[in-house]
Specification:
Elements (H helix, E strand, L loop, with lengths): L3 E4 L5 H12 L3 E6 L14 E5 L5 H11 L4 E4 L5 E3 L6 H29 L2 E6 L12 H21 L4 E8 L11 E3 L7 H16 L4 H13 L6 E4 L3 H10 L2 H11 L5
Parallel strand pairs: 1-2, 1-4, 2-3, 4-6, 5-8, 6-7, 7-9
Helix pairs in contact: 1-6, 2-3, 3-4
Length: 267
């Protein structure tokens, strides 16, 4: 039986590599983009069908679900990266981030679940960030959104596993996807936080440029899809096994200080 997979944000980065790998392994792959028509011909993957999806728009989510029909596997990869001091984050920017990174994934999953449950098979893979486990200053909105997505995934796994539908959460560390160039930033030139924000961004961008390639994350995601059943949680990149071990062994305050200093902040 050929399984059908829906990969959100399939036009670049991790989503592109997941779509590429699944197509090469014989899956029917539907890849989403806010504007599929804008994807250049030489960037379109062989064996991938492109569909429109804007996770910030609930009507777009409903239209996408109706268009794709029965889906066996959904990989929630699309999202926005955001930075800014808590005091200065615009309310509409935070609302958009949560709709795109959390609520959109939940709403799309809700529309796909009845079919998965009826067929007795499904895989829901959410792609988070290690920042949810290791919060960083001036990334609060992004940290909170990824932590919320992780919570939804963990709870949904318990609800859905009796029906053969398994949910797994993948937490990448620093990945060289170029996402730093697309990150939305909210810091005024006269902000009292500007020096610290700039320092953090400089270190964050350097970490991402030196991160593992997105294809490595894609391999972990496909491993989760094909496991029977998948684990609840996968972490990849940024020396994941070591840093999670240290997180368990060290006091939380020390972990926070280490993360801050790693990004040029004195805390």
């Amino acid at each position: 039986m050929t399984r059908t997979a829906l990969v959100t944000g399939a036009s670049s980065g991790i989503g592109l590599e997941v779509a590429r790998l699944l197509a090469a392994r014989g899956y029917r792959v539907l890849g989403t983009s806010r504007d599929p028509a804008s994807i250049p011909a030489d960037k379109r993957l062989t064996g991938v069908e492109y569909v429109a999806l804007d996770l910030a728009d609930r009507d777009s989510i409903a239209a996408c679900a109706a268009e794709v029909g029965d889906i066996d596997i959904v990989v929630h990869n699309a999202g926005e990266s955001q930075s800014g001091a808590l005091e200065e984050l615009p309310a509409d920017a935070v609302d958009r981030l949560f709709q795109t990174n959390v609520f959109g994934a939940v709403q799309l999953t809700q529309k796909l679940l009845p079919g998965m449950r009826a067929r007795g098979y499904g895989r829901v893979i959410t792609v988070g960030s290690m920042l949810a486990s290791f919060p960083l200053a001036f990334r609060g909105s992004y940290v909170a959104a990824k932590a919320a997505l992780k919570g939804f995934a963990a709870s949904a796994r318990q609800e859905l596993s009796p029906f053969g539908v398994w949910v797994a959460h993948v937490e990448p560390g620093s990945i060289a996807t170029g996402i730093g160039e697309r990150r939305t930033k909210y810091t005024a030139d006269d902000s009292p936080y500007k020096a610290d924000v700039d320092m953090m961004i400089t270190h964050l961008d350097a970490n991402e440029r030196g991160g593992i390639p997105p294809a490595k994350v894609a391999e972990v995601i496909v491993k989760a899809i094909e496991a029977d059943p998948p684990r609840e949680f996968y972490a990849v990149g940024s020396n994941a096994p070591i840093v999670f071990l240290l997180k368990r062994l060290m006091p939380a305050g020390i972990v926070s200080s280490v993360i801050a200093r790693k990004h040029g902040l004195k805390r």
